[in-house]
Predict the 3D structure of the following.
Amino acid sequence: MVGKVYLVGSGPGDPELLTIKARRLIDGADVIIYDQLCGEKIISSFPETAECISVGKFASKHTLPQEDINKLLIEKAKHSNVVVRLKGGDPYVFGRGGEEAEEVTAAGIEVEVVPGITSAIAVPAYAGIPVTHRDYASSVTFITGHEGEHKDDEILEWDILARLSGTLVILMGVGGLERNTSRLLESGKSPETPVAIIENGTRKDQRVITGTLGNITEIAEDCNLKPPAIIVIGDVVKLFGVIPQNPL
């Protein structure tokens, strides 16, 4: 008999945003293979009976390459273990959960995904920024700012993104902030478009900086902004300071 792999989303970092199912699976796991983006409070709550393996994946610095993570999941499950692969946010929102599910399933091992609250929605909400609002935005688009430049060129159509009137939310975009804002500006997005960047969202050290598409790169540099952070672009940012932030 082989074990089973659960791809579990831990949410954006506030441990109270873990789902009941995620908490139950973590507490009953034989092996927990986790990312640092889960946050220290969640990581410190792991049961002592579980084998806990950090695979890094924080701020583009990976303890293990993705291929080795896939092999580790398969190896641990083949020893009849209940394996929880714990990922920040939601496993299928820029979390490579789909890739891991493919590899584990191909090895003949059962996989179950447990959705998590994505930081793309929760982090702006905690900062007092709704990603949609009848007066400001009737759509929201999630994009990754983390992929390599050539891959982004193939996937992201900046001219279309620049024309969208709704909200753009960029995950993992701090490292590529200057490049991504330049692409939007070059594609015709107004430099006066409001932008907010939320660092360590939903956590005690949450920090929000605001500006415009034309100056946010300089502001972020002056503030020494660090990942993890969510970038929100659009008129909904005008509500920052109007709608109260969640208490942390």
Remarks:
- The first strand starts at residue 4 and ends at 9.
- The two ends are 45 Å apart (CA to CA).
- Residues 4-117 form a domain with the Cobalt-precorrin-4 Transmethylase; domain 1 fold (CATH 3.40.1010.10).
